[in-house]
Amino acid sequence: MTPTTDETRGVRAITWARRKQATAGVWREFARDRGGLIGLGGLVLIVLLALLAPVLTDETALEVTNTTAQPRQPPSAQAWLGTDRDGISVLLLVWWGARVSLLIGFSAALLSVFIGTAVGILAAHFGGWLSTTLMRFTDFFLVLPTLVLAIALSAVLPRGIGTIVLAIGVASWPTTARLARAQTLTIEARPYIERAKALGAGHRHVIGKHVLPAVLPLVFAHTTLVVANSIIAESTLSFLGVGDPSRPSWGGILQAAFNSGAVSQGAWWYLLPPGIGIVIVVLCFTLCGRALETVLNPRLRGQR
Amino acid sequence: MRRRRGRGAKGALAALSLVTGLVVVSAAPAAQAQEEVTLKVALTQEIDHLNPFLAIFQSSTGVGRVAYDYLTRYSAKDQEPVPGLATDWKTSKDGLTWTFTIRDNAKWSDGKPLTAEDIAYTYNLIRHNETAATANGSFVESFDKVTAPDKNTLVIKTRTPQATILALDIPIVPKHVWSKLSKVDDPKMDEPPLVSSGPFTITDYQPRQYVRLKANKNYWGGAPKIDRLDFVHYDNEDAAVSALESGEVDLVNRLAPAQYDALQDNDDVTLNKAQGRRFNELLMNPGAATKDGEAIGDGHPALRAVRVRQAIAKAINPQVLVDRVMSGYAELGSSVIPPVFEDYHWKPSAQQRWKFDKRKANQELDAAGYQRGADGVRRMPGNGRPLEFRLLGHKGRTFDEQSARYIVEWLGEVGIKVTQEMVEENQVDEKGTAGEYDLAFSGWGVNPDPDYILGLHRCAARPNAQGQGGTTDSFFCDQQYDRLYARQLAEKDESKRQEIVKKMQQRLYEQAPMVVLDYDNALEAYRSDKFEAFTVQPQPTGVIMEQNGNWGYYQAQPAAGGGEGGLPAGGWVAIGAVVVVAAAGGGLALRKRGKSVEDRE
Amino acid sequence: MSDVLTGIEQPADEEAARGAPRGSGAVRFLLGKLGSALLSLALVVVLGFLLFRMIPGDPVVTMTRGRPVSPEQLAELRERLGVDKPMWQQFVDYIGGLLRGDLGTSYLFQRPVADLLTERLGPTLLLVGTATLLAIVLGLWFGIRSAWRRNSRFDKVSTGTALTLWSMPQFWLGLLLLIAFAGVFPSGGMRYSDTPPDVFSQTLDVAYHLVLPCLTLTAAVYAQYLLVMRSSLLEEMNAEYLTTARAKGLRDDLVRRRHAVPNALLPTVTLVFLQFGMVLNGAVAVETVYSWPGLGLLTYEALSGPDLPVLQGAFLVLAAAVILMNVLADLLYRVLDPRVRAT
User: Fold this and answer.
1) Most buried residue, A61, B594, C150, C319, by most Cβ within 10 Å?
2) Domain end among B473, B506, B521
């Protein structure tokens, strides 16, 4: 009963058309949420600016041996946001810091969501002792004080961006696992999965063709929130001194400011911009995530 | 509408009456505290122990220096040994027997007299009890015998001549108290009141909060001019600085340049920029090895060549670090003995000094056969290993983290790729001792006698085969230097010794196992509306806190005007209470109003 | 941080529903909960051991930093600390010590870790407790109001504020408040050295020092409670019984008080306990900024050593606290939820 190529193509086309339609529907729903739109717009703008930093700005101006400006100067015509402890423009520093913060935020979130989704789906799909073990593990990681765990991990591993990504990813996956598991259970309870199994579909088929496509949208919405959390976690870790000093993220800039006496100097221009950057990005992600979740989770529809 | 406003007003009135009550009550104890003069000193370092045998941290030994007496003291003027508990001393011809005359008029804070017996007891306790040796064991290592033939005489016999005998940093403890204890680390000895004989007595200690001392009116050197001395703990410099500004504390040190600058506009605060005893250096692993010459560690082989190290010395510009990283609050570095010890300090002449010259550094590396590869990084002649160095530094130490970026960029210009390796302090020490570094930031606080710091660069200072027992700073090993070291040790003539010491520094400078980057200024600030200028050590450019002695605290003097400048702490408490209660009252009123709005709906 | 904003999954909810017990099941439920908590605790203990054995660096070097020591002294110290022993032996010692309440000796402070932890527990409890209480009051109050007047200006302002506060790293908010209130409130610590020793002055002094740290911690926590309260109340308000109640002609206010709010309270109150770990995370950052002498600051200080016994001890205590709170959350859920209670 192998379907001919044409038939496959037909089935695929239908699937694609249906998905396209669904996506369009989601977008229409999403577009109705003004907060979500603002968040999305803000994110696109910030990511673009971060990506274009090498084009729009001069990277050599970040080199300490190249600057001639006085350190720790308040905003002026030359440096719109003042200068840091090395005499580098804070504006430039924050601009380039965005790249590091976003990179870590995205990578950590991806890692965390990947672990979480895998654990969640496996636990729900296979059930039995595997499920019990996995969920026990999830519960365990859920209760650990994540920041302390991440601090410990980054003390164990060599310093660098990779370590921070790993520390945040490993400490923050359980919520995704729970979400993925709940959603998988819902999906697998539906009759068509029963039918597919009866027709001899293997684990790979069921997970790959049915469970994943149904779980992923919700996980995707959730990911935006995980990115937001990861960015905050990254800044906190960097502030506590486990970041990479050669490529300062927003948290790293704040740590440098704090350590060089910016608070007693009252150097607001040094402390405000990185923090505002974090707030804006996190806020944008949160708005997007909330809007997406409202759209994708029918239970919440019409509430917000 | 009217009803609602009435309710809100009632709430506010209740809050107000509560506030007035609080102010009156809390103002009373504040007024009481005014009668005594208290000098409040900010500490940003933890107190590890009050027990003088266990206290190691600078903060704790600083407290010990005001609470306890020592055999001798360093003068405030030029850090020469002057009488302490000992009024006089003489040494035998072979330099192995020292006889000290102990003063008659020293008393313990419990009224009992302090005698030579107490001093002998203290030294012997350290010699025979491992726990007691924790903090100061090294001072008595060469002691053969310590006795007190009578209550005014102390005799110390040593196995080898000991240069530091007049600088024993050992607090003297009362025999009648300590001999009753079953163990030296008895926790009771961390709990005041503690019996001591110094110008102040410890009366109260709250870990991580404060140590309080009261003046010893019977002190043999005369009573201090203040009544109390409080060391108040702050977790970071910023907290300490704002405490100084608000009048919470009177004396602060270890300021960062930004903080020092920020205090410049404050009329009530006087700043002290002191010549420091510390230097910062950039170590270049010259081929780490044990005492027996067996190679250890994983230092980059290229750094074994003097020419490479010299080229690096020319490729970096310490003056920029002084100007920009230290904001000018440092002196340009040259040798391992800071200029504050002017008799021993060696300064290179204009021709001798490595001149910052990228072109020349590049030329020299080219000429030595270190050709650049396609990626712009130089390769070693022969094996073609790229010149990629790690730069080891203390994580969280501002100087290391800031300077590292300059070093990376400067060396990048001459085709040397440097990656930062900022790690925890114990890992810096460990990697440093094991020779597991290419470049590394290090630094030392130097004592008045140059012997120790010079000794660090001898072949014999390197570790043994097990990688232990070494105190080497640089893994430098040079026959010429070692010969000079032996000569200065044996030299009795002071000016001749100075000459040799200077030659040693020159040798170090030329062989460049390190580049001394700068000598930090010690930045301090105090409330001059409450206190007269403090006694510094050495004079006139020295420090108030972290002296080799207690002159700053002991001779502190309240300002002539009387310390009415700041709001007393009790006043702040009252203000705090007002704010809290007002906020609560406001919240209450808001809630009431909210409720009536709700009712209306 | 966790995703309270999603508000779609309630572990307690799920588990309570799954294990809805009958009759003697209540005891079994309790035992089951305690059992899983103990298992988690055991895992924490093991993880605590493994994690902190992996940190590089010789502890003896930390302890002897900055002073000359002979090789004999070093060897003696190593022996006293037991760092030379094989791993399994260390583990046995560690478990034995734990059972005796002995958590080892701090490298940095040279004092028993258990003493240090007890000493620091008080200030953390004070800070976290005060902030949580304040956050509950503020969060619930604003949450209920926002939900009830959905899309009003009040709702927009309060939800917007909450979202912004929630998006802030707590240490940054702390830094800003530190600058803004420089000179008005103390810059750090828990009390002045020269406050009179009587209880009244001491209490006032501590309260005065508590204001800023507490404010900072409250800001982020209350925002979470608000958002959750709001969304669960909105969910309740869509429920059919409310429409019925309204149809019966009950006043809005009464409907809210009698029906919607109590039901919506359930997930929020449970959340207060479940999110305790997040509050502790905040405490680490806030205590560091304000030098509040609690467990969080201790963790930060121990990091710079690194002081392994202290890090390990702090990790154990904090994790155990979170586990305890989760057990409480489960129990509370059982007591409060009418559905579970009824069966």
Assistant:
1) C319
2) B521
